[in-house]
Amino acid sequence: MPDVRNSEKEPDKGRRRFINEKVVRQPMSKRQICLRLVMIFFAAVVFGVAAGISFTVARPLVERYLGEEETPGETISIPKDEPTDPTPAPTPAPTQAEPETEGEPIEEQVQSALENYRYTVDDLNSMFADLRTQIQTAEKGVVTIHSVQQTLDWFDNPVETAGLYAGVIIAKTDQEILILTPDDAVEQADSIKVTLDDMDLDGQMKQKDATSGMAVVSADISALDESVREKIGVIALGNSYSVREGDLVAAVGSPAGVVHSVDYGFIAYATRTTDVVDGTARIFYTDIMSDEEKGTFLLNTSGELIGWVQGNVSETDDRVKEVVGISDYKGALERMSNGLSVPLFGIIGQEVTQSMADSGLPDGIYVLRAVADGPAYNAGIQNGDIITSVDGSEMATIREFQNFVGDLEVGQIVDVTVERNGREEYTELQFQVTIGVR
Predict the structure, then answer these.
(1) Cα torsion 180, 181, 186, 187: sign
(2) How far apart are CA 399 and CA 236, in angstroms?
(3) What is the average pLDDT value for the chain, to the nearest integer?
(4) pLDDT at 307
(5) How many whole angstroms separate alpha carbon 189 and alpha carbon 63?
(6) Neighbours of 357 (CB within 10 A)
(7) Is residue 118's pLDDT more than 80?
(8) CA–CA distance, 404 with 233 (Å, rounded to integer)
(9) Helix, strand or coil for residue 311?
């Protein structure tokens, strides 16, 4: 007889059921929702502040090491001067002679008066009074540049050192003042301070030019009162093409090695043209006291800036100084004042003269020297080559070449056509030059 219990239980095998439960989260209350939104907003604020601080700290370092050019808020324009040979001062037209007194001609009376007149210190002071007034006005545009460097001593303690340099204010806007100073002031500086009328301002380098040995520093004046900004002096840029031998000049900045020192002197000699990198310049010689490393700037009798002392003429005699005329560098100063680098082609040359052309040389710019490791040198241009055109523009004079290069941009690639002297004749060659930075 079959077991009824077992037969009834077997169908239940394999069909056992388990209880499945699903946990459902209860909906958030209004208080929980508000708390969650507050936490999210707070986290966003914290991360935003952290990002802002990181950007502020990192930006100066990035600009310094990557060479990022700053875009100025207001464009600075510096009018250029036309190069002209200075003409002698006009000779006064002869005037009708005064009637002679009885017994002695007027010329003899003047000669006798000059010989018998006893000059005093008051006479000398009177002669220099106008120039002294110009210098006192110009001194409002002279500042002290503190080149601050951070170093460590033997015990790894931070030490801050500051070199003092002279600078002259060449432009001013509502936001900043632009200061011309030696490039040594910014070369190794970790930070820059500008002292103006006992006020310390934060400064930063706009640009520098190794060829002229100068740099432009910017100082923020937007936080100063309007009355204070109006009192800041600006030294006008003069025309160095009009300077002649024998002109009376004044040195400001740091002629005695101390900022705000002053000296007077004369222009001993003025060159007409001197071959410099990518053009020509007018150089002056003077025996005026100067400290070119700290910054010495020359003013004419109108108080205008006409140049700066570059160094000694002779290595064995430091009495005669070489002065760079400002007119040839106004284009570079305008670029630096707007935060732009000065372009470099990299040759020292001269235009082919008529006598050179008569001997068989093609018209163009004769390369006296391709600057070692410069853009032209790296492109393959050699000493003795004659540059006839750049980017399709013919180069007939060194002035045309100088102006053309001054309008190029750093990193721009230009096509250069040169004539190179072969065994029997000149051969035309093509080069591509990538414009560098001075």
Answers:
(1) positive
(2) 25
(3) 82
(4) 95
(5) 14
(6) 12
(7) no
(8) 33
(9) strand
User: From the CB of residue 102, how many other CB atoms can be counted at a distance below 10 Å?
Assistant: 4
Picking from 416, 410, 414, 415, the residue whose alpha carbon sits closest to that of residue 436 is 410
Please report the sign of the dihedral spanned by the C-alpha atoms of residue 99, residue 105, residue 109, residue 115.
positive
Contacts of 248 (CB under 8 A, 6+ apart): 131, 264, 265, 266, 301
C-alpha span between 76 and 335 (Å, rounded): 8
Tracing tokens 């005669």 back to the chain, one arrives at 320
Q: What is the pLDDT of residue 320?
A: 85
Amino acid making up residue 185: A
Tokens, residue 379: 């492109």
Q: How many CB atoms lie within 10 A of CB 368?
A: 12
Contact indicator for 173, 77 with CB cutoff of 8 Å: no
- Percent of the chain whose pLDDT exceeds 90: 50
The span from the CA of 266 to the CA of 269, in Å, is 9
The count of other CB atoms within 10 Å of the CB of residue 198 is 5
Q: Give the pLDDT confidence of 248-290 residue by residue, as tens digits.
A: 999 999 999 999 999 999 999 998 888 999 999 999 999 899 9
| Token code pair at residue 178 | 């632009």
- The number of beta carbons lying within 10 Å of the beta carbon of residue 236 is 13
Q: Where are the beta strands (DSSP E) in 355-412?
A: 365-370, 386-390, 393-394
Q: Per-residue pLDDT averaged across 85-99, rounded?
A: 52
| Distance from the first to the final alpha carbon of the chain | 116
Nearest to 235 by CA among 177, 176, 162: 177
pLDDT of 92: 52
pTM of the model: 0.73
Q: What are φ and ψ of residue 367, in 5° steps?
A: -80, 105
CA atoms of 145 and 182, how far apart (whole Å): 10
Task: Note the pLDDT tens digit of each residue in 123-166.
Answer: 767 777 778 888 888 999 999 999 988 777 777 777 777 889 99
- Sort residue 419 into left (φ over 0), alpha (ψ -120 to 50) or beta: beta
- E strand or H helix that includes residue 109: helix 106-116
Angle at CA of residue 248, ends 243 and 252, nearest 5°: 95
> What are the residues whose beta carbons fall under 8 Å from the beta carbon of 65, sequence distance 6 or more?
none
- Residue 314 identity: S
**pLDDT tens string 306-343:** 999 988 776 666 778 899 999 999 999 999 999 999 99
Is the CB of residue 376 less than 8 Å from the CB of residue 365? Answer: no
Query: In terms of DSSP bridges, do strands 305-312 and 191-196 run parallel, antiparallel, or are they unpaired?
Result: unpaired
Residue 31: the pLDDT is 67
Residue 283: its H or E element: strand 283-286
- Of the pLDDT bands very low, low, confident and very high (cuts 50, 70, 90), residue 62 is very low
